[in-house]
Amino acid sequence: CETCSKEAAKYRCPRCMIFFCSLLCVKKHKLAQSCNGVRDKTAFVSVNEFTDLNLLSDYRFLEDVGRTADAAARHCIVHSPATKRLLYFLRNKARGCNIELKTLPVFFSKRRENSTTFNSVENKFYWHLKLVFPHCHAEYTLKGVPDDKTLADILKPYIDPVESDPVVCQRFIVHHFCIFTAFFFFLLKIYTASPQSDVRILMKIENRSRNSVRYNELDASRSLLDNLKGKVIIEYPTLFVVLKTLKNDMVVLGQ
Q: Of 45, 73, 101, which residue is a domain's last?
């Protein structure tokens, strides 16, 4: 027994493969190692040790995955009439603005976190928007961004050398890094210290092959709606804020 080292082992932990002599030692092991005693179906098995039992286990595991995915696809929320009407309404309004809006199944995290709405009284989209700052390895999520707001105004609290809000920037850094706040706040100065003419706003072009990733360059002086016209959006827009001198391999369409 690998717990008490006194008695002959009779049992084996399916997860840790440790030998035990009694139920008492099993309970001591689970308590000390925080082990649930459930076999890890995805644990690595070398080719030399792979047997028919491992093959059968993998086959049953894939069957379980298939059943789980099928159950999620049949979930009542996915086929709820209210959900379908809302998504159809959003896609239809986007189509009227010359935007091809695509939505994902409800079990995708991007679908669940999307908070985009359309105000029929104002005839205006309020977008869920994600800003990515590659040179700081950070991102920030905005909610309820009106479609008539210019990209320059959206980015002012973050990168404008005069009007940037240190409180917003600090909250942005703390949210994503939690530690070394001052260091990453210093990194954000890469944008504020650079000429505004060097800042580029890019958006990934959807429906392209993996080895042909391209970006559209957006116009900061124009509204969010104007920049999204004629483009494909999956759930919500993701904007990459980059510097012209540090753009690296982000290829803009036409280059």
A: 73
